Recover the amino acids of this structure.
């Protein structure tokens, strides 16, 4: 008789929840206050109302390329180590304890609360500030900080690579060795990987600059200002997370409506100028890497020329040795003929012939060597 144990459904549910381990996020609002949260993907989807396919872009295990996506209520940023979700009032940043993310968090805390800082300065110094109306929207300030951080990060990596690569290449040209070759090989591999990372960021910025609609989708504040005056929003807010396909259609329709009804292009122009500035910066970084690649290619060509020169010298040495061997073989042939142990009349009474045989044979061998080398020089096989 087989006894079947009952299955504990609560234990199974708890195991499934454990497999979906929460991720560490930091929440920064418009006042600069930060809160560290442990949220799984379902909590993130409900909080910022984005789809799972958009959240999957921020998964570090999937290694998606650099991406900037504008959605109905948020901007999804995947820029190397900066993986964030930007709304009109707050920023969610992933892995805030990472050493590369900590400076980004500090910069967000310092630069996001611009309005509060101006109010504090006005209270303490009794100074009227009249430029608050011209302040950039929250999402554009957060996007600017992220772009500045990633461009500065890639530029710093490029500077470090240049600092290591140029002396290594100069040392390799002065002395070709296995250690120098292996060092340059590792630097070239690092340069290839870094160039690919910079190229992906540049391509993403270029894609945004080529499409005004994509740039308009990133202006969340303008979309909220339009939808608040035209749509009540309660039904759409409840319907959006449940139906991704239809919700995305409503999203695109609302985006098109806000882009046409509220047709001020000030936000888009400001965003375009922002993207152009960092596009030029990342393009300059890519040009530096291209210059470094050309320098490496020139160094490789120079090394190949040196190796070909050494190879030609070895071939010339081999030609000298082969010519000398042929000349000496004639001398050995004469010695072998006279060394044969057969009786003949020259064995007696002709001792004075020995020195003449040696002299004549040596002269013929030397003349043959000179003729071979002259012919090789005439044909260009030996350098002058």
């Amino acid at each position: 008789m087989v006894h079947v144990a009952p299955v504990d459904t609560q234990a199974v549910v708890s195991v499934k929840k454990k497999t979906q381990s929460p991720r560490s996020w930091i929440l920064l609002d418009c006042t600069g206050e930060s809160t560290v949260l442990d949220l799984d993907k379902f909590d993130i989807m409900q909080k910022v109302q984005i789809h799972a396919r958009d959240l999957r872009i921020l998964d570090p295990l999937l290694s998606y390329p650099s991406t900037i996506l504008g959605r109905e209520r948020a901007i999804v940023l995947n820029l190397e180590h900066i993986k964030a979700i930007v709304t009109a009032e707050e920023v969610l940043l992933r892995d805030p304890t990472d050493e590369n993310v900590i400076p980004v968090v500090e910069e967000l805390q310092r630069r996001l609360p611009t309005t509060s800082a101006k109010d504090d300065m006005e209270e303490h110094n009794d100074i009227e500030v009249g430029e608050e109306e011209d302040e950039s929207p929250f999402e554009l300030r957060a996007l600017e900080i992220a772009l500045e951080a990633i461009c500065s990060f890639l530029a710093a990596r490029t500077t470090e690579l240049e600092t290591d690569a140029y002396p290594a290449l100069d040392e390799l040209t002065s002395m070709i060795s296995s250690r120098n070759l292996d060092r340059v090989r590792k630097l070239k591999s690092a340069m290839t990987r870094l160039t690919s990372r910079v190229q992906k960021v540049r391509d993403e910025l270029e894609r945004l600059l080529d499409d005004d609609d994509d740039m308009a989708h990133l202006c969340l504040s303008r979309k909220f200002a339009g939808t608040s005056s035209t749509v009540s929003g309660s039904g759409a807010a409840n319907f959006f997370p449940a139906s991704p396909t239809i919700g995305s259609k409503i999203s695109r329709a609302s985006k098109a409506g806000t882009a046409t009804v509220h047709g001020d292009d000030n936000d888009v122009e400001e965003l375009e100028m922002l993207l152009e500035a960092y596009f030029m910066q990342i393009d300059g970084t890519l040009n530096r890497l291209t210059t470094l690649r050309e320098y490496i290619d020139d160094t490789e060509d120079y090394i190949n020329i040196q190796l070909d020169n050494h190879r030609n010298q070895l071939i010339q040495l081999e030609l000298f040795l082969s010519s000398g061997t042929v000349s000496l073989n004639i001398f050995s042939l004469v010695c072998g003929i006279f060394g044969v142990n057969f009786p003949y009349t020259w064995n007696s009474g002709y001792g004075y012939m020995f020195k003449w045989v040696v002299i004549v044979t040596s002269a013929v061998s030397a003349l043959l060597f000179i003729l071979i080398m002259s012919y090789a020089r005439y044909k260009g096989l030996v350098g002058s």
